[in-house]
Amino acid sequence: MTQSGTDKSGDSFKGTGIAPSAFWRFVQERVFTLEGVSDPWRDLTILLTGSRSVGLQHETSDVDVDILCPARLYKVLHAKALAARVIQSTGSFLCIQRDAAAKAYFGAPLGNPHFSVTPLETVQAHFAAFEDVPMWIWTHARVAHDPRGQFTAIRDRFSGYPRAERVRKIKFHWLAAAYFAINMRPREPDGILPAVAGLSNAILELLRVFFLVEDRPYPYPAKLMPCAKDTTLGREFCPLLSRAADEIAGDGGDRASAPERLQEVFERLFCANLSEDAARLQEACEAAMVAAGVPGPWVQADYENVDQLLNGELGPFMQ
Questions:
Q1: Burial annotation 254-290 (CB, 10 A radius, 16+ → b, else e)
Q2: Ordered DSSP codes for 216-258
Q3: CATH 3.40.50.300 given to domain 11-155
Q4: What's the average model confidence in pLDDT over 126-152?
Q5: FRET pair for 151, CA 20 to 30 Å: which of 1, 229, 279, 312?
Q6: How far out from the chain centre does Cα 215 lie?
Q7: Mean pLDDT of 106-123
Q8: What is the pTM of this model?
Q9: Is residue 243 a contact partner of residue 261, using CB atoms and an 8 Å limit?
Q10: Is the CB of residue 285 less than 8 Å from the CB of residue 228?
């Protein structure tokens, strides 16, 4: 970073699959020209987020550009963009560039270039409320320009969850995994849809636990499995969970076999008395939860704690 807060070296773009020159041309021609922007280098933080920020992009992954600014400026930019029909939403600022020329910045296979504008105060609120997915996005963002360190000053204050918050989150997601698996397991052919949804959600909840026991925020669903492979539990159990996810999705076999296939997945992952894999998974997760501060007696009680989830004691839960 230079004194002005701009990454002139190109380090922010290493491993992202996009050229810094294309990125900056897009920003300067499509963002800095918005009505209400008088001094973009002074006021706007420019970030690269999404799959490219963590090196998980494929050849057609889009380019996620996030713009941050003070709330007072955001109100001006949003009002002017709305009036000019640059955007249509009255509650947020996502600008999708649909004109033919816009595709030339990064190449047509990457789709319509787009950027979001967010108040810095909203980012601050995400960290204050310990909102996992937004925190994951912000802590993994590539910083291309950050005047006066206005964004990094917010981000760098996060050094983990308070113990009580971490424990609450772990309890919530651990019980949610069990609830989805147990209460939506297939009992008849008409139960295939909830069983697929339930087992899929159960796996996602387990992956969230893998992050939380390490005091780390978790990403959005599309990045949970690939990023969880970088956690201690994930290195051991992501192959097991990934194979289970493939089986849940099915292989085009006949519908009559689906309940049996889904029941096998349920038993392999969640029935420690029937499956060595489930026993290993449960034992490792329980040890990690205790190490993260969850009381041992609570962990031993396991699913008997489920009313804490269902009555909202651990946070809002959608059944």
A1: eeeebbebbbebbbbbbbbeebebbeebbebbbebbe
A2: -----HHHHHHHHTTSHHHHHHHHHHHHHHHHHH--S--GGGH
A3: no
A4: 97
A5: 229
A6: 15
A7: 90
A8: 0.92
A9: no
A10: no
